[in-house]
Design a protein that fits this description.
Length: about 140
């Protein structure tokens, strides 16, 4: 196999979903924390979310690009495969209407949410914090 052929899609290793205990506030029938299924986000998925959460605002110093506070919740919600955060009955049970709002209601402990956010970034190869991304978007 030539060096070039090694780059063919058929040689690419798949990135597999992983299981993660996001909170200890939801337990199974044996009292064990429920496992969530998390997928690693692709570059295209992460970029689409970043673009969706980026806007330009006029400041006293001119136009500035800012990343909204929805970026991390949307990023995390996109990575959660199970539970299905788009399920209407699950959303209704928490009184919310978007996957990211549901995620923040289920993980109402900041520590749980921040731990999931770090896990999603790690699994997706995003080794920068939201604050760093926001700063980069401004420049």
């Amino acid at each position: 196999m030539s060096g070039f052929e090694r780059f063919m899609k058929s040689n690419k290793q798949p990135r597999l979903n992983v299981f993660y205990t996001a909170t200890r506030s939801l337990l199974d029938e044996n009292g064990e924390p429920l496992e969530w299924e998390i997928k690693p986000l692709t570059t295209r998925e992460a970029e689409a979310i970043r673009l969706d959460c980026t806007s330009s605002v006029r400041t006293e110093h001119g136009m500035q690009t800012v990343l909204s506070g929805d970026f991390v919740p949307k990023l995390c919600a996109a990575a959660v495969v199970y539970p299905d955060l788009k399920d209407a009955a699950l959303q209704d049970s928490y009184g919310v209407y978007t996957p990211q709002d549901l995620l923040m209601e289920i993980l109402d402990s900041p520590g749980d949410f921040n731990a999931l956010a770090g896990f999603v970034r790690e699994q997706s190869g995003l080794d920068v914090s939201a604050a760093q991304l926001s700063e980069e978007a401004k420049n």
